[in-house]
Amino acid sequence: MLEMQPGYFVERFPRKANTFQCSVCGSENRYTQEKEVDTTMVADMLRFAAVGAFDVLVLLSGDADYAPAVEGVRAIGKQAYVATWGGAGLASRIRRAAFDHIDLLEGLSDFERPDDGVPASVPLPTGWYDSPVTMRGGDQATDSPRMRGDDLAALGETERALFLEEVRRAEEKFHGGYVGANYFVTRWASEILEEAPESRRRMLDALVEDGRVQVYEAPDGKKAIRLTGAASPASIRLEGDEGGGRNDDDES
């Protein structure tokens, strides 16, 4: 959540409940509305400017009602910008009051996703699969430096088998392409895998160590993952599965 990030302060306001009566059918409808939000923003802008809490203010609104506050901030000696999506909702009154206008649409390209669905600006964690990778078609898998020994052994075969099935499902979905390692760890939607990226990285480390998943370099230079021959359907067996052995309930 935003308030958990360093340097961010989030303030929530109670909403006031109201009702109105439909002029056509006469039914009573309930709704809520914010109270004191605009006045609090104006007060904070001027208060923080007065105590030198910032040098530059960026107001994400084009509402002309904020123009006097923007003028007050500039009168104190601070720069004040207004930011909107294009020119939508940008009142000429506040545009004249502000030092300049920031068009948020101009920065959208920085957040565009490549074909693998992962923002280009989201890097893999430092040290994760930093050793030389295997190119497509190679035989040697890349080892992960993150987990070794007891940590890997603690992961059960059932967990590993479920993870392998998800990798297989991803390979089928992106048939003809590749499964991005960072995409699978951070964004792949699954009903059976934990959502926490660190948990998925831990399991991926174990399967790379086992030799059942291979990390390689895709044609566009990104890290990708794929199943190896050791992860063929016949080799994946859940704990407790005896592989077709006869039990006492089998009929003769």
In short:
This protein has 7 helices and 9 strands, in the order ββαβαβαββααβααββ.
Describe, in plain words, how this protein is organized in 3D.
It is a single chain. With 252 residues, the chain is an alpha/beta fold. It folds into two domains: 2-110, 5'-nuclease (Rossmann fold, 3-Layer(aba) Sandwich); 134-235, Arc Repressor Mutant, subunit A. It contains seven helices and nine strands; from the N terminus they run ββαβαβαββααβααββ. It has helices at 37-50, 67-75, 92-97, 150-153, 157-173, 181-186, 197-210; strands at 15-21, 28-34, 56-59, 79-84, 100-103, 134-135, 179-180, 213-217, 223-227. It has a four-stranded mixed beta sheet. Helix 1 (37-50) packs parallel to helix 2 (67-75) and helix 5 crosses helix 7 (197-210). The longest helix has 17 residues, at 157-173. It is elongated. The N and C termini lie far apart (61 Å).
